[in-house]
Amino acid sequence: MDQLIDFDGMALFVKVVEHGSLSAAGRAVGMPKATVSRQLALLEQRLGAPLLHRSTRALSLTDVGRRYFARIRPIVRDAELAQVEAMASHAVPSGLLRVSATVAYGQLVIAPKLFGFLERHSAVNIDLRLSDERVNLVAGGYDLAIRMGVLDDSELISRKLDTVPMVLVASPAYVEVHGAPRRAEDLSRHRAIVTRIDIDHWNIGEETVRIAWRMSTGNMFVTRDAVRAGLGIALVPLFLVSHELAQGSLLQLLPEQSLPETQVTAVYARSVTPSLALNALLESLQPEP
């Protein structure tokens, strides 16, 4: 007699492995830990082999479980995508999206885009958390994170959102007292404001200049305010100071020099199948043509 395939058990087993625990998998699918454990036990009973080594502290795959996971993970992934596509044909974006973003970019660039997104999608709620610390998407329960700079996590799926130009700035008061640098090497004789103490080398044109920082702020807004107060020169993203440059409260230095650009990327976990709401949000965050 043909046996029916336990697709629900397969999908739940994949979630447990990807999330690392029964509790985390249960939270991801809205199921109590006891139910997750019972469903996995039924799956193992149908297969006639244990899939996981269970202990009070951790889970690990058996040899059978490792082979089984490798075979069914692509199947479960394709099934989830097919379900999302089918539902998208008649559904509207809905549900809660938890989003993490860096403080300055999140406040100045991402938040205004989210306002417009929420106006267009009344059935979606967004929990936005701003932090310059890189959060763990799976452990923190985040659907999406907006990150600046180089990505080094192969477990994340990324989508480029923007390329941010950098500018060198100082206050008119600072320039009046200390003068403006005319060449890249002049920067080594000026005082600098940095956001992190490890950023003590600036790439200016084809040169790398070691700078002497006077203050490390830990926050881009504080960096901007320290420069406005005349404490030194800073290399910052253009979006952070565009208003001040237009008003004249900050001056752009060495505008003829080429400066590095910073890439902004939206990332989500490979273990997550993007919902209709998440796909709609990703599209809305793309730069305007």
Automatic annotation (TrEMBL):
Please name the CDD domains in this protein's record: PBP2_CrgA_like (cd08422)
Known Gene3D superfamilies for this protein?
3.40.190.290, Winged helix-like DNA-binding domain superfamily/Winged helix DNA-binding domain
Query: Which Pfam families would you find in this protein's record?
Result: HTH_1 (PF00126), LysR_substrate (PF03466)
Q: Which GO terms describe its molecular function?
A: DNA-binding transcription factor activity; sequence-specific DNA binding
UniProt keyword annotations, A-Z? DNA-binding, Transcription, Transcription regulation
**Is this entry keyworded Ribonucleoprotein?**
no
Q: Where is the HTH lysR-type domain?
A: 5-62
Q: Which family does it belong to?
A: Belongs to the LysR transcriptional regulatory family.
Q: What is this protein called?
A: LysR family transcriptional regulator
**The species this protein was found in:** Cystobacter ferrugineus
